[in-house]
Design a protein that fits this description.
Blueprint lengths: L1 H18 L7 H28 L5 H7 L4 H29 L1 H21 L13
Helix pairs in contact: 1-2
């Protein structure tokens, strides 16, 4: 783990340092790049943290020896518990949806209708009407 953690943290910090300032570019260009910059920066940090978590040894005896007792370990334990519940719920929902294909089609139609209604409610272009010169 010692050999991997340094480069992973360094790469995550460098990529975040490149993309975070992009979120603060003023004007129209900044608005175009803002969501992209935040998405990349957050995904890099999450990816690095998951990589550091997965670098632990796999054997149960090694995991039992390395388990910490600090606040970070308590956070990881709670996160893993909540994430496990969410994963189990999602998998159960997917299994039920596959078993009941009619329900899946109704759900798909509902999502399509909601997307269509939201698409009509949102502006059709990035620039407002009065700046186009019409």
């Amino acid at each position: 783990m010692q050999e991997v953690s340094g480069p992973v943290v360094a790469i995550a910090l460098i990529l975040a340092a490149v993309f975070v300032p992009t979120a603060f570019i003023p004007g129209i260009t900044g608005r175009l790049y803002q969501q992209f910059a935040v998405t990349i920066a957050v995904s890099v940090v999450l990816s690095a943290s998951m990589r550091l978590r997965s670098a632990r040894p796999v054997s149960p005896s090694a995991q039992a020896e390395e388990k910490g007792t600090g606040p970070l370990q308590r956070f990881y334990d709670r996160f893993n518990k909540v994430f496990g519940r969410a994963t189990d719920g999602y998998v159960g929902l997917c299994r039920a949806a596959v078993r009941k294909s009619f329900f899946s089609l109704i759900l798909l139609a509902g999502v399509a209708v909601i997307a269509g209604l939201l698409g009509k409610a949102l502006p059709g272009s990035f620039l407002p009407e009065k700046t186009r010169g019409t």
